[in-house]
Amino acid sequence: MSTDYKLVIGVRLLKSVEKIMEQITYKTTGTCAKVIRFERDAENRIHNISFEGGCNGNLKAIARLCEGMKAEEINEKLLGNLCGSKKTSCADQLAKAVVSTL
Questions:
Q1: 22-43: per-residue pLDDT in tens?
Q2: The pTM is what?
Q3: Which domains does the chain have, with CATH numbers?
Q4: CA–CA distance, 5 with 84 (Å, rounded to integer)
Q5: What would the DSSP string read from start to end of 15-60?
Q6: Is the separation of the CB atoms in 57 and 47 below 8 Å?
Q7: Rounded CA gap, 69 and 76, in Å?
Q8: Does the structure show a pLDDT above 70 at 6?
């Protein structure tokens, strides 16, 4: 009894997509952080968020939590967040930054 074997080689074509990242610098108002920097990709996702000034640990946490989120998601979650008696916060300023630069 003979068994015929067929060799099947799967070929997966990888489409090369160039990552285009727009680098944005946003000057804040009314917060301890003076500048917010981030990158936006072609899918409107936000990456590499950093703050100049402000509460270092808290702002690093916000940056990590928002990494890879769409601008609209960040705006929805953070807009209107206040810091003490101020009329804004660093998180609120981030929300404004990601949508005002669309």
A1: 999 999 999 999 999 999 999 9
A2: 0.81
A3: 22-100 (3.30.390)
A4: 73
A5: PP-----EEEEEE-SSSS--EEEEEE-TTSBEEEEEEESS-HHHHH
A6: no
A7: 11
A8: no
